[in-house]
Amino acid sequence: MWVRSTMTYRFSFAMTLLSNFLATAFDFVVIVLMFSQVRGLGGFSFAEVAFLYGTTSTAFGLADLGLGQIQRLGRRVRDGTLDTLLVRPVPVLAQVAADRFALRRLGRVTQGLLVLVWSLLILDEVTWTPAKAALVPLMVVSGSLIFSAVMVAGAAFQFLAQDAAEVTNSFTYGGNTLLQYPPTIFAGDLVRGVVYVVPLAFVNWVPALYVLGRGAPAGLPWWSAFASPAVAVLFCVLAGLAWRVGIRSYRSTGS
């Protein structure tokens, strides 16, 4: 329904799509300006940083396209309109995700994908093997699932703290920004935190460093580069459990 209503005004949709594309592109413009003054960043070349940017931006863009609206759940919990979703014969999670579905977010996906493809074309220092080639689409899909799981878990937390959308954003939007840059420029404790505590590093850092021929971060073994799908499945299971607990704890507004 929301897609049909959006496409009714095609010129307006085209302008909002372009605006979303350009707004997200400014993140990469910052990296371009940075490399106009330096030759490397934390030991990484421009092509390597572009590869990191492209993988995480595409993964996050796909998750944001499908589940970006779920952060509005806190508002529904506060005003009691979640009750109307509970009585419909459709999963509540699907209804919340589809609420005011924003097709303009394709701009972020397109921009990240263009940077990713371009970085692959200019990565001269990588010796490609079948395993490395397979890791590129695998990390994008797995990364998207990891970001999606974090969004669902954050939405479940809003059943308890209705104004907690920004807490989730610190892990989703904040995590996306963090992963756009090499881990070597961050403090060791922060890197270990996104590897062992909230393992967002499996979105792209861990598999991407293997593709680039570099060691895994925070002392992980080399085979951890192929663990992103398992981490994504684990994240999704935990997020699903958190969502069920949140739904069962909902008691409406009492009005």
Q: What is the fold's blueprint, element by element?
A:
Layout: H1 2-8, H2 10-35, H3 46-67, H4 73-79, H5 82-86, H6 92-98, H7 106-122, H8 130-157, H9 165-179, H10 188-197, H11 205-211, H12 228-249
Helix pairs in contact: 2-3, 2-7, 3-7, 3-8, 3-9, 8-9, 8-11, 8-12
Characterization of this structure:
- This protein has twelve helices and no strands.
- The radius of gyration is 19 Å and the shape is globular.
- Helices cover 68% and strands 0% of the residues.
- The chain has helices at residues 2-8, 10-35, 46-67, 73-79, 82-86, 92-98, 106-122, 130-157, 165-179, 188-197, 205-211, 228-249.
- The chain is an all-alpha fold.
- The mean pLDDT is 91.
Described by strand count, sense and barrel closure, the largest sheet is:
none
Oligomer kind? single chain
Secondary structure category = mainly alpha
Number of strand segments: 0
Shape: globular
What is the beta-strand fraction? under 5%
The amount of helix comes to 55-70%
Q: First CA to last CA: what distance? A: 30 Å
Q: Taking Cα atoms only, what radius of gyration do you get, to the nearest Å?
A: 19 Å
Quick summary:
By secondary structure, this protein is mostly helical.
Keywords:
68% helix, 255 residues, globular, mainly alpha, 12 helices
